[in-house]
Amino acid sequence: MQLDQEKRGFSFSKEGPLDMRMDTTQDLTAKKVVNSWPEKKLATLFRDFGEEPKFKQAAQAIVSARKQKPIESTKELAEILTKALGARPRKRLHPATLIFQALRICVNRELESVQTGIQKALEFLSPNGILGAISFHSLEDRIVKNILRDAARPIKKFKDEHKKRYMTLLTKKPLVCSKKEFKENRRARSAKMRFAQKN
After folding, report:
1. What pTM was estimated for this model as a whole?
2. How far apart are CA 155 and CA 65, in angstroms?
3. What is the number of other CB atoms lying within 10 angstroms of the CB of residue 79?
4. What pLDDT digit, counting tens, does each position of 101-146 carry?
5. Rounded average pLDDT over 67-77
6. CA–CA dist 58, 99 (Å, integer)
7. Cβ contact 58:64 at 8 Å
8. Distance CA 181, CA 199 (A)
9. CB proximity list for 25: less than 8 A, separation 6 or greater
10. Which residue, among 26, 49, 45, 24, has the nearest Cα to 34 in the 3D structure?
């Protein structure tokens, strides 16, 4: 719901402050990152958390623009990125999409939350309980996949390795939305769902 609220500053399609905090009591905002982080650190952020191919150009454009004046709003940042990165050939993604993703992940420490959340869920799951995890981009899905894969490996101290595993994977490949679901809910486009059962 926060993503659709202009005042929360998550969307480049709506005018709002550069905030992006899920927890509005925390100090770090997207505005602070954009206006104070050095160019090299911004580039690394956009490369690692946004998987943006033009991460250097994005960082350079932001640093150049903020020398004139601080970058205050979502629309302002989106315009800077659109000019610097240009349209994506054969892709429907807006030029600012991956940069906004990187900023949101950074501000909210999302990948750490996913890691902790999945591990805690496995810990508290009852025997025979099933864990389902849905992710919306490749970085999240990679974390979920790796944790569940590792939990499904045989425990070495047992001789019969095929019988003693912590978890059993119920989905070797993630479930993705159907064409019908995509038409009804476009946000399901990038969703991937995985399941595992506790032994």
Report:
1. 0.79
2. 54
3. 16
4. 999 999 999 999 999 999 999 999 999 999 999 998 889 999 999 9
5. 93
6. 8
7. no
8. 32
9. none
10. 45
